């Protein structure tokens, strides 16, 4: 254990460090809408901030029990494998061959043969936030870079990356790991396999969206887990406070103390 003095010295040193990690980038083809190209470019910094936060969480000493990990992957998550995939996101590069809305695609799709990522009409629609697009980018990047999947069999075993699904998915009991589909059931029954699930990384990325970028970046440069967790908690706390201030929300008032209950025989 550190003394308070040594902890303070290390913390000050950590706060002064600069991140050297390369961010997730995208090679975007020249064909397609320039407005759509800008939508991707504007979402990438948001995605990278989320990825840095993910790295900080999975690098913690008790990552398996972190609320963000449990919510995205369940209570028996394979943190080692999650950490590997997040690492691939952190300095990887996706290829987006064009910026036209891909036919038949709503948010995004990844070609398992070449790893190319395309986005659909919902992703590009006017008014969609960079935060929402960043989540889709992380989902698709986990496919392209981490070979994650969307589908699991009826026993909760993931189909292999690029494997064809049964023609009758309902009869075969295919489960889809999307947040609005079978994610909760899969987390309950197959948590140890959820590191294969692409949408779990999108959910994981959304768990601390208000974290201050500079604090998270500094946390990722610190090898000491105690200091890293301190910086991450500080980042999240600052983000939530800032969000409340911007919204004009008033601090929660403590409820009035209830009258003490009488005990004993009546």
UniProtKB/TrEMBL annotation:
| Entry annotated with the keyword Signal | yes
Q: Which residues form the signal peptide?
A: 1-21
Q: Does the keyword Transferase apply?
A: no
| Superkingdom assignment | Eukaryota
Per UniProt, the keywords (alphabetical) are: Signal
The molecular function GO annotations come to: metallopeptidase activity
Region Disordered, as annotated, extends over 242-266
Return the protein name: Lysine-specific metallo-endopeptidase domain-containing protein
Q: What is the lineage of its organism?
A: Eukaryota, Fungi, Dikarya, Basidiomycota, Agaricomycotina
């Amino acid at each position: 254990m550190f003394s308070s003095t040594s902890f303070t010295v290390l913390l000050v040193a950590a706060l002064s460090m600069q991140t050297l990690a390369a961010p997730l980038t995208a090679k975007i083809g020249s064909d397609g809408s320039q407005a759509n190209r800008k939508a991707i470019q504007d979402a990438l910094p948001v995605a990278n901030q989320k990825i840095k936060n993910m790295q900080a969480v999975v690098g913690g000493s008790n990552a398996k029990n972190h609320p963000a990990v449990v919510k995205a992957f369940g209570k028996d998550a394979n943190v080692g494998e999650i950490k590997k995939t997040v690492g691939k996101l952190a300095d990887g590069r996706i290829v987006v061959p064009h910026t036209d809305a891909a036919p038949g695609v709503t948010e995004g799709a990844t070609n398992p043969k070449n790893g190319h990522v395309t986005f659909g009409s919902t992703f590009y629609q006017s008014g969609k936030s960079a935060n929402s697009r960043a989540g889709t980018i992380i989902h698709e990047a986990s496919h392209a870079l981490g070979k994650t999947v969307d589908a699991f069999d009826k026993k909760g075993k993931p189909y292999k990356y690029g494997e064809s699904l049964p023609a009758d998915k309902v009869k075969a009991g295919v489960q889809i790991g999307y947040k609005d589909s079978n994610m909760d059931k899969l987390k309950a029954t197959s948590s140890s396999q959820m590191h294969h699930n692409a949408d779990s990384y999108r959910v994981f990325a959304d768990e601390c969206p208000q974290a201050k970028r500079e604090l998270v970046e500094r946390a990722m440069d610190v090898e000491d887990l105690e200091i890293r967790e301190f910086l991450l908690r500080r980042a999240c706390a600052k983000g939530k406070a800032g969000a409340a201030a911007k919204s004009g929300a008033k601090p929660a008032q403590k409820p009035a103390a209830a009258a003490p209950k009488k005990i004993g025989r009546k």
